Amino acid sequence: MRQQLEAFIDLAKRYEASERPGDYIGDENLYAQLHQAEPTVRQILRLLDPTIADKIDIGQMAGPAMARNEVHRGLGILADKGEWATRLVPDAPTLAADRFHSWVWEPAAPLWNAEARQDAVLAAARSVNRRLQQKLNRHDVGETDLCLQSFDMKDPVAGKPRLRFPGDRTTPTWRARQDGAKYLAAGAFLAIRNVAAHEDEVSWTEQESLEHLATLSVLARWIDECTVESVA
């Protein structure tokens, strides 16, 4: 971007140097090159500041000189953007939504990009539920009951396989993880999926919606990580 803007400024200067005094008419070849570069320069400036881009018009009187001045402003913004990113952004870690588990973000992304956040969360929850059903080959109960049964520490019985985390099953930590997953999974479907499905319109902010997707992503990773234990 910087190279494109600097090249445009150089071109504009050369054209201005070729202008005949008093009429703003200069070298035709340079003028044609300015027109050719104008759309790209406009697009770059539009990303930096749309108000600057709107002022670029090579065809008007003194257009190259005015455009050069605006492009200089764009270069100033571009030079400062790195400093803005460092100084003006809160000093806190961030989550990248496209790094959520694929079961969550792939179905949610097109809806999120369409600003349908409630539908995005619902699509993600349904996707996680389908994956859980497929992994256990169970389609006979609702998602909340399925979560409670799947992570339950009771031995599996016919038609009711269990999900098991890796690790030493005799330790309190393993049992706590198994039990915690059981209730978090059930809670996610009760408090997130059901609300998204049954409310006409939720009041979730963008941040809250992302947090719901993050919760579903944690659940998806746990389901993906676990092995299935069933009766022989």
Notes on the structure:
The structure is a single chain. By secondary structure, the protein is mostly helical. It folds into two domains: 86 residues, no CATH class; 133 residues. Helices cover 66% and strands 3% of the residues. It contains nine helices and two strands. It has a two-stranded antiparallel sheet with strand order 1-2. The longest helix has 27 residues. It is rod-shaped, with a radius of gyration of 29 Å. The termini are far apart. The model has no long low-confidence stretch (mean pLDDT 90).
Structural class: mainly alpha
The outline comes out as: rod-shaped
Task: List segments where confidence is low: pLDDT < 50 over at least 5 consecutive residues.
Answer: none
Average pLDDT confidence is 90
Rounded Rg: 29 Å
User: Which strand-content bin applies to the residues?
Assistant: under 5%
- The count of domains is 2
How many β-strand stretches?
2
Number of helices: 9
Termini gap: 63 Å
Query: What is the helix content?
Result: 55-70%
Record the strand order, biggest sheet. 1-2
What about the largest sheet?
A: 2 strands, antiparallel
Following the backbone from N to C, one meets helices and strands in this order, namely: HHHHHHHEHHE
